[in-house]
Amino acid sequence: MEQPSADSGAVGWIYRNRPARFVVSCVCRKTLLRLVGRYADSRLSRIHIRRFAEKRGIADWQGYGSLNAFFARPRANVAFPAREDTLGSPCQALVCAWDQLRPDAVVQVKGVTYPLAELLDEDASRFEGGAAYCLRLESGHHHRVYCFDDGVLEEENSVPGRYDSVHAAALPHVPGLYAKNHRVITRYRTEQFGTAMLVEVGAMFIGSVVRQAPLGEPVRRGDVKGWFCFGGSSVLLFFEPGRVRPDADLLAQTAAGIETAVDVGEKIGEKITR
């Protein structure tokens, strides 16, 4: 799926227009986001579910008590690859992938980079030469995030920040957007892929990143890690060198500036065997 032009659509217009960006920055302040979140949790918000679902071709929309309950709904048909050395996507998303990672210049979108240390809020030198993925969830996607391997979620760090849109049209206009937005960073020790960093980035109208899986206890591949509340969002994955080889087609599509649609559990890479 090709990325929308940075100069097309309402989001592109907002992020090219300084007054409009100022209004959005005011709207997306934490206090207002909290009010939006409370409304999305209320029974009153149910009136929006049918229109939201029908516009995006989602058949399963009935019986939810609130917009957030619908947005973070469970899904029964989640399946990860049978081979343990295969990396499945932790979420339904539009994905880009990179190998030979440069921590001083992580690609946000073509021509726009940011230092990985700013995103992780710690030294990132151990990821030099490793693999990285950006999984961008749009509003119609299934917004649960799953554990992609057996292991332990060792540590979690919630970093406060902004709530800019992560739409493709916004990325060229906000350098270091992922490192500026609110994000939850999880150190994930896996059995097959070493110790990875999983970063859940909040976006416009995303006030909450919810974790269900326990910290410091074993998790299994396919367990629900957590979910995002209403809005768009992104999941970023970083692997140390010699651990993961991204699929060649994803690397080629990314190099061409194209995002690839993937479902939960769909193959996006494999373990590097020595």
Characteristic key phrases:
alpha+beta; single chain; 22% helix; 274 residues; globular
Describe it for me?
The chain is globular, with a radius of gyration of 18 Å. It has 274 residues and is α+β, with helices and mostly antiparallel strands. The model is unreliable at 1-8 and 10-15 (pLDDT under 50). It has helices at 9-16, 18-27, 30-41, 49-55, 67-71, 116-120, 177-180, 248-255; strands at residues 86-88, 93-98, 106-109, 112-114, 131-137, 144-146, 151-159, 183-190, 195-201, 209-211, 218-219, 224-228, 233-239, 244-246, 260-262, 267-271. β3 (106-109) and β4 form a beta hairpin. Helix content is 22%, strand content 28%. It is built from eight helices and 16 strands. Strands 11-7-8-9-13-5-2-15 form an eight-stranded antiparallel β-sheet. A three-stranded antiparallel β-sheet has the order 1-16-14.
How far do the termini sit from each other? 33 Å
Order of helices and strands: HHHHHEEEEHEEEHEEEEEEEHEE
SS element count, helices: 8
Fraction of residues in helix: 10-25%
Integer tally of domains:
1
Q: Can you describe this structure in just a few lines?
A:
By secondary structure, this protein is an alpha+beta fold. The chain has helices at residues 9-16, 18-27, 30-41, 49-55, 67-71, 116-120, 177-180, 248-255; strands spanning 86-88, 93-98, 106-109, 112-114, 131-137, 144-146, 151-159, 183-190, 195-201, 209-211, 218-219, 224-228, 233-239, 244-246, 260-262, 267-271.
